[in-house]
Amino acid sequence: MIKIIMAFGKPVITEIFTKDLRQELDRIADVKKCENIRSAEELNFLMKNFRAEVIITGWGSASITEQIYRENPQLKYVCHCGGSVRSIVKKEIIRNGLIITNWGTIAAKTIAEAALMGILSCLRKTIEAHYLMHQKKEWLYLTEAKTESLFEQHVGIFGFGASGRALCRLLEPFQCKISAYSPFEPDEIFAKFNVLRVHSLKSLFSMNKIISVHAAYNDENYHIINKDILALLEDGGVLVNTARGGIINEQALIEELKSGRIYASLDVYEVEPLPRNSPLRGLNNVQLIPHQAGPTADRRVDIGKEAVKNIQRYIAGEKLKYIINDEDYDFIT
């Protein structure tokens, strides 16, 4: 029977792995649940003593360092219950043979749902209405609100991976005119979703009233949405970011928002948690969400189900789903 360490804490671990899923893991493996491992040193000590072949990681897990991998040759597989794996393992360790999987496309539908919520909130001016109704106890008259509908709007999607495509599906009832910028996706994907392919970020921002960001965060995309790109968004335009904060130059965005020219819905930030004194706080044209666009509490069980299936595949010697290789590593949101 193989040995498995579950190396991330409550309450998330119990939301992802329900009682039934934990019982299934206990049936097929010798499982050690470690809810308070926060450092690589602690993890290495545990690995050396328990000799686990598989580690299940998630939000808040300690990194698997080169030292851990070198000193624990029995470690073969990391089953990561999240998206980006960069905080868990370095690319060099994967190149040296460690297998790692992530949650694949499981989070795409809830991320897309959050993006859709952000778009609608900005168009319907719910941030401003909420402030007036709750804080100032005033009424936002229809003639002053300047609300807009999503129907038949021009929507641009930056990054046409799983979550970008999921948003495209959610937009279908609104009959939007959709274009996307995603330089590494094949033409067939755009054709399949009936989405216009554009070949620059400038074109995407110039052509669309609404922009939803779903791109990966890497060196090439750091602050790629800058002052000049933001200036291309038309007055009253909407920017939604459920990807990573560093993709947008936050200071440039703050200046645009302070001008009142555009609206935004942000789930991610350059510094997280968002500092208490951030200039983003208090603006009534930006919706702030604390990095919760991924699986909601009731949908986290989907992650656990797929993780257990992958571990069952591993034990049976079958091909795993959502394996992260060199090419995938830098392009995961």
Structural overview:
By secondary structure, the protein is of the alpha/beta class. It folds into two domains: about 5-105 and about 295-330, Rossmann fold, CATH 3.40.50.720; about 110-290, Rossmann fold (3-Layer(aba) Sandwich), CATH 3.40.50. The chain has 15 helices and twelve strands. It has a seven-stranded parallel beta sheet, with helices on both faces. The protein has a five-stranded parallel beta sheet with strand order 2-1-3-4-5, covered by helices on one side. α2 runs parallel beside α14 and α6 (about 110-125) packs across α9. It is elongated. The two termini are about 35 Å apart.
Cα distance spanning the termini: 35 Å
CATH topology tier name of the largest domain: Rossmann fold
Q: Report low-confidence residues grouped into runs of 5 or more.
A: none
Q: Biggest sheet, open or closed, and with what strands and sense? A: 7 strands, parallel
Q: How many beta-strand runs?
A: 12
Going by CATH, the architecture of the largest domain would be 3-Layer(aba) Sandwich
Shape: elongated
- Rg from Cα: 22 Å
Number of domains: 2
- Can you write the helix and strand succession as a string? EHHEHEHEHEHHHEHEHEHEHEHEEHH
Q: What average pLDDT do the residues reach?
A: 94
Strand order of the largest sheet: 8-7-6-9-10-11-12
Structural class: alpha/beta
Count of DSSP helices?
15
At the first level of CATH, what is the class of the largest domain? Answer: Alpha Beta
CATH homologous superfamily caption of the largest domain:
NAD(P)-binding Rossmann-like Domain
Indicate the proportion of strand residues. Answer: 5-15%
User: Helical residue percent?
Assistant: 25-40%
